[in-house]
Amino acid sequence: MPPSLPVPSQTLCINPEPLTPKAFSPFGTAITSPLPATLSSILKSSSLPHPLHPPYQPYPVFANQATALKYSPISPLVNNYPNAPSRGPGRSLVSMFSCFPRQLDRAGNFNVRILERHPFTTQTFVPLGVAANDPDIRFLLIVAPPLLDSLPTKTTSGNSIQIYQPPDLCNMKAFVAHGGQAVTYGVGTWHAPMVVLGRQRVDFVVTQFVSGVADEDCHEVQVEEEVVVRTGAGQMMSKL
C-alpha cells in the first residue's frame, strides 16, 4: 500500500471545470482539435485557419498532397530517465488502458483516494472510438501541483518515511474532458488514476517512457476520504 497523506482538517470539495488548453497548462497539455467541428473541406493556403486555442496550439502546414493540415508539435514527449538514479536511458512504451465508469456517492461526488506521478516522464492519454458530442461519455482529470518541501508520514506498516514534493491538496484541480480530447500529464504532475464518468467504458492509448525501476516509474500516495470532486452528475456533463 502507498503511504498516506495527513488527513485534512476539513473536507476539501473541488468543483470541476471544462478541460481547455489554457486552464490545464500548469499541469500539462490538453489536446483538442484546433478546427471547428463544422469544417469538412480543405482550405487554400491564403486562408489557413488560425488554431482555436493560440498560443497553446501551433499553426498548421499542408501535408499529404495538400489534403490535410498538420499541427506539430501538439504535445511534448519528455524522457528524463538519464537523470534518474539508475541512469537508465528509459524506453518508450505504448499501452492500452480500458477504463470503466467509476462509482460515485449518492450526491454524485467522486472521492479521491489515490494520487500518483511519473517523476521522469510525460504521460499521454488518447481515447479511442469516442465521439466528441456523445453526452454519455466524459472523463475526469484530477491534478495537484507539488509542494516544495518533503512531507513526513508513515507507511501502512508504521515505518516513517519522507514524501519528496508531495501533492498540494489545497490547490488540487479537476477538469472534465469529452471524447474528442486527449491529455498529457507533465513530468512529475500529481494526478488521480483516470476517472470515467457515465455508463460506458473508454479505451485509452497511453504513451510514456519507463525504466522498469518501480520507484522511478511511478510514485503513489494514499488520500483520505476528505477530498471529493463534485461531479454534479448529469448537470455538469450537460454543460460541456
Overview of this structure, please?
Homodimer. It comes from Endocarpon pusillum. One of its GO terms (molecular function) is ureidoglycolate lyase activity. It catalyses: (S)-ureidoglycolate = urea + glyoxylate. Keywords: Lyase, Purine metabolism. The chain is mainly β and 240 residues long. Helix content is 6%, strand content 35%. Strands 2, 10, 13, 15 and 16 form a five-stranded mixed beta sheet that branches. The model has no long low-confidence stretch (mean pLDDT 87).
Features:
lyase, 3 helices, 5-stranded antiparallel β-sheet, Ureidoglycolate_lyase_dom_sf, Ureidogly_lyase, globular
> What does the main sheet amount to?
5 strands, mixed
Distance between the termini: 36 Å
Compute the gyration radius: what is it? 19 Å
Helix content: under 10%
Helix and strand string, N-terminal first? EEHEEEEEEEEEEEEEEEHEEH
Strand proportion, as a percent range, falls in: 35-45%
- Poorly predicted regions: none
* Computed structural class: mainly beta
Strand segment count: 19
Determine the number of helices (DSSP H or I, runs of at least 4 residues).
3
What is the typical, i.e. mean, pLDDT? 87
Q: Rough shape? A: globular
Layout of SSEs?
Elements: E1 12-14, E2 17-18, H1 21-24, E3 28-31, E4 61-63, E5 68-70, E6 91-99, E7 109-111, E8 114-117, E9 123-127, E10 137-144, E11 151-154, E12 160-163, E13 173-178, E14 182-185, E15 190-191, E16 195-198, E17 202-210, H2 214-217, E18 219-222, E19 227-230, H3 233-238
Parallel strand pairs: 1-19, 2-13
Antiparallel strand pairs: 3-14, 4-5, 6-17, 7-19, 8-18, 9-14, 9-17, 10-13, 10-15, 10-16, 11-12
Pfam family, one: Ureidogly_lyase
GO molecular function: ureidoglycolate hydrolase activity; ureidoglycolate lyase activity
Catalytic activity: (S)-ureidoglycolate = urea + glyoxylate
